[in-house]
């Protein structure tokens, strides 16, 4: 049965009216109900573009179609659009390009099931003679990239050496539908090394002096990629309005940025991706909106339409939901909208969590977060608010435990201050947790009307909210007793804090600093030119200068160099270099130099020089842990000097190199155990691979590789291309399918009889991967088939497994 849309306005441009299907008309319908709107005839000389503004909100089966027909014969020429994914209250604008020549009519059809109850409507249909990317959009644009025309977006600009790609599966699911069948545009860095690509909107006009662009992006393990957004009017480009940062886990994340606009000129918004020679990974964009006016306040949401620019985390067990009510608890905003909730008890498991993360927010001064909550029932565990600006800087700032709400239908008010981050970019996290005690009784955790007030102080409410303090990173083991050391410095002394090391940096404004974390420093000031005069206090949380705990005590001192985020030209190459030099070393026997280091930022580097010659270096983040380095010092009849050099390049975040606990042992490094490379542990950073033996009865050898010459671009230990690992690859010289490589860890012989844990990290990729076996015992009995275990866990190739 056909049904005509109400309010027929062919090729109308009146956005104050709309055409819609009425759910009441489906009563008594057959299995499906069809509404069909036909346009008057129009001609296309070479290529044309139809712009349709539409929206669709429902949960039952419903599809919006646009079909092109020949005007004279009625022959169907092609399906221009088929959309069955629901959306929000805002209209979406879709461009449909027509490449046929002739005279045509359009059919805009809605097909719904008889159970349908929702909104299927459109309010503007425009025809433009010419390609879709030549259209000038007045004041509003939305694109979900579900049509081949890409809404008129340009995937490259003049001078580009790479392009953005419209496709699926980069990442595994798009943002619009959360499906592997959905589409996004993406920049594949590994195929664009040393290249640049721009994604640009079609031309737009604005009736306001400010515009807002909202979009979702996914950083799929990209490295060495610069990704930014700017606006352009004519030849005038704005400064970057937004720069992608590397602090967060890989999720679809929302961004909203405002910028100035000249209403007399046309505007385009541009997303720029720049790859370096070592770039890997993918950056993707989806669901782009550009509109006139200022963007809404960041992180604020009443949840009436959706969760705004908040993200459901993938590292939890449950999802927050938006509902009209939870029992007798109703929407707080107006009573007839939606709230954010989690039902506890019942089918949930004890300790399950649901985590929601805000968009990245710029906070340069203390801000105030307010919201309304209800925690009801014995199955409620807790509601936690966290502040997160990097994997090293994530801590809880507000916590309520248990079903503290007396009545299930009453809202309570909460407020708490949000402190500025060292890099002024923060995620706010809401974590709801089910009680650890199993309970069949249902309860709920509910939140509504979140408001973030920038540059406004407030107190913690309710007063019963606990305020956890951040914990320092794990403390690494200190050296085991060994023959005496010649020099040692833990930077804990009140006088001579550097233990006769001196700062010989050429740049007097960039030197090593002595830092005390977590507790006030009570020692005297450092004297002389050896190091910056100021003893800086604080931690990464407040200063952005180093880890939140030292290596020696967890609350003591270390030396550090840091660099603020780059301002201006993000492609400038100047590095900040600082050098710390040891006292003179004059020793006639082999000795061992040991120290601990902590680095953060992909453009951070630390190296060690003996008499000016490079002996060791590491680049990139070390992870949230102090790591050790052991270096053999050859005997010498003359004075030697050891230099520890910090090299900090330009980056989009605060980066640093930190050092603690330097030792010079009067023995060889084989006699010094720092807890990271004993006979029972090996990180494969040295070619002798901890004296493990390549078996002779096999048909191939394991290859010692790093990210520059191996199958994978980074190792596990350091997550950089400088780190090493072992591989067996079908691409390596001399290896053919079916060959076997065996590594003999025979020094595990004669160990006491008891239970042991054997741990390793495995990564495999490609097709027909082969097998990795662990064999134990005198007769080498098969203990574990690692590849089979990974497949049993549902893991796919090219995935690291612990």
From TrEMBL:
What CDD domains does the record tag this protein with?
MAM (cd06263)
Family annotation (Gene3D superfamilies): 2.60.120.200
* An annotated GO cellular component: membrane
Which InterPro entries does this chain map to?
Answer: ConA-like_dom_sf, MAM_dom, MAM_domain-containing
* Organism superkingdom: Eukaryota
Every MAM domain range = 141-297, 299-460, 487-671, 680-769
The cross-references to PANTHER family, in alphabetical order and at most eight, read:
APICAL ENDOSOMAL GLYCOPROTEIN PRECURSOR (PTHR23282), MAM DOMAIN-CONTAINING PROTEIN (PTHR23282:SF101)
The protein's name in its UniProt record: MAM domain-containing protein
Q: Which organism is it from?
A: Halocaridina rubra
């Amino acid at each position: 049965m056909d049904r005509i849309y109400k309010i027929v306005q062919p090729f109308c441009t009146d956005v104050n009216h709309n055409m819609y299907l009425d759910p009441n008309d489906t009563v008594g319908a057959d299995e499906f109900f069809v509404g069909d709107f036909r346009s008057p005839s129009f001609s296309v000389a070479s290529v044309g573009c139809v712009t349709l503004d539409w929206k669709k909100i429902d949960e039952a089966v419903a599809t919006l179609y646009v079909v092109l027909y020949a005007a004279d014969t009625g022959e169907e020429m092609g399906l221009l659009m088929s959309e069955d994914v629901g959306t929000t209250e805002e209209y979406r604008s879709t461009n449909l390009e027509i490449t046929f020549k002739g005279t045509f009519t359009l059919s805009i059809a809605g097909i719904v099931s008889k159970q349908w109850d929702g909104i299927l409507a459109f309010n503007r249909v425009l025809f433009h003679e010419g390609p879709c990317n030549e259209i000038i959009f007045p004041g509003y644009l939305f694109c979900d990239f579900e049509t081949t025309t890409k809404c008129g977006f340009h995937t490259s600009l003049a001078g580009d050496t790479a392009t953005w790609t419209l496709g699926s599966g980069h990442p595994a699911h798009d943002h619009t539908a959360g499906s592997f069948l959905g589409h996004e545009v993406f920049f594949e860095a590994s195929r664009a090394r040393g290249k640049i690509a721009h994604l640009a909107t079609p031309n737009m006009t604005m009736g306001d002096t400010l515009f807002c662009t909202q979009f979702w992006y996914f950083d799929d393990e990209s490295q060495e990629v610069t990704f930014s957004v700017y606006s352009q009017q004519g030849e005038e480009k704005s400064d970057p309005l937004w720069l992608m940062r590397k602090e967060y886990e890989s999720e679809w994340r929302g961004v909203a940025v405002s910028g100035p606009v000249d209403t007399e000129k046309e505007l385009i918004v541009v997303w720029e991706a720049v790859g370096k020679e070592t770039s890997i990974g993918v950056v993707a964009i989806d669901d782009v909106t550009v509109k006139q006016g200022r963007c809404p306040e960041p992180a604020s949401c009443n949840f009436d339409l959706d969760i705004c620019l908040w993200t459901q985390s993938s590292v939890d067990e449950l999802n927050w939901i938006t509902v009209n009510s939870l029992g007798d608890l109703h929407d707080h905003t107006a009573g007839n909208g939606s709230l954010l909730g989690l039902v506890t008890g019942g089918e949930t498991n004890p300790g399950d969590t649901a985590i929601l993360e805000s968009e990245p927010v710029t906070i340069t001064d203390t801000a105030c977060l307010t919201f309304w909550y209800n925690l009801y029932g014995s199955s409620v565990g807790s509601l936690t608010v966290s502040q997160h600006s990097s994997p090293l800087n994530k801590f809880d700032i507000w916590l309520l435990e248990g079903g503290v709400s007396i009545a299930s239908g009453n809202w309570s008010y909460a407020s708490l201050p949000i402190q500025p981050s060292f890099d002024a970019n923060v995620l706010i996290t809401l974590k709801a947790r089910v009680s650890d005690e199993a309970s069949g009784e249902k309860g709920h955790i509910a939140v509504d009307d979140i408001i973030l007030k920038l540059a406004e102080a407030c107190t913690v409410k309710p007063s019963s909210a606990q305020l956890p303090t951040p914990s320092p990173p794990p403390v690494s083991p200190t050296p085991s007793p060994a023959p005496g050391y010649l020099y040692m410095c833990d930077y804990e002394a009140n006088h001579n804090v550097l233990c006769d090391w001196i700062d010989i940096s050429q740049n007097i404004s960039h030197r090593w600093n002595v830092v005390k974390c977590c507790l006030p420093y009570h020692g005297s000031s450092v004297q002389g030119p050896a190091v910056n005069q100021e003893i800086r206090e604080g931690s990464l949380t407040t200063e952005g200068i180093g880890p939140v705990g030292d290596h020696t005590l967890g609350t003591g001192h270390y030396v550090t160099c840091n660099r603020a985020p780059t301002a201006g030209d993000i492609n400038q190459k100047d590095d900040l270099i600082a050098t710390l030099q040891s006292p003179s070393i004059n020793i006639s026997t082999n000795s061992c130099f040991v120290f601990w280091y902590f680095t953060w930022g992909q453009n951070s580097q630390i190296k060690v020089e003996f008499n000016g010659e490079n002996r060791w270096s590491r680049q990139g983040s070390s992870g949230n842990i102090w790591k050790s380095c052991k270096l053999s010092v050859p005997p010498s009849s003359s004075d030697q000097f050891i230099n520890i050099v910090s090299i900090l390049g330009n980056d989009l975040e605060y980066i640093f190199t930190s050092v603690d606990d330097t030792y010079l042992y009067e023995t060889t490094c084989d006699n010094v155990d720092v807890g990271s490379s004993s006979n029972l542990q090996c990180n494969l950073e040295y070619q002798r691979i901890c004296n493990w033996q390549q078996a002779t009865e096999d048909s191939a050898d394991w290859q010692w590789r790093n990210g520059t010459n191996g199958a994978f671009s980074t190792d596990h230990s350091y997550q950089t291309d400088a780190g090493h690992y072992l591989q067996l690859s079908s691409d390596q010289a001399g290896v053919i399918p079916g060959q076997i490589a065996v590594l003999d860890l025979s020094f595990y012989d004669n160990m006491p009889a008891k239970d042991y844990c054997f741990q390793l990290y495995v990564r495999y990729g490609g097709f027909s991967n082969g097998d990795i076996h662990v064999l134990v015992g005198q007769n080498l009995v098969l203990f574990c088939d690692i590849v089979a275990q990974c497949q049993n866990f549902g893991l796919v190739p090219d995935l690291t497994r612990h």
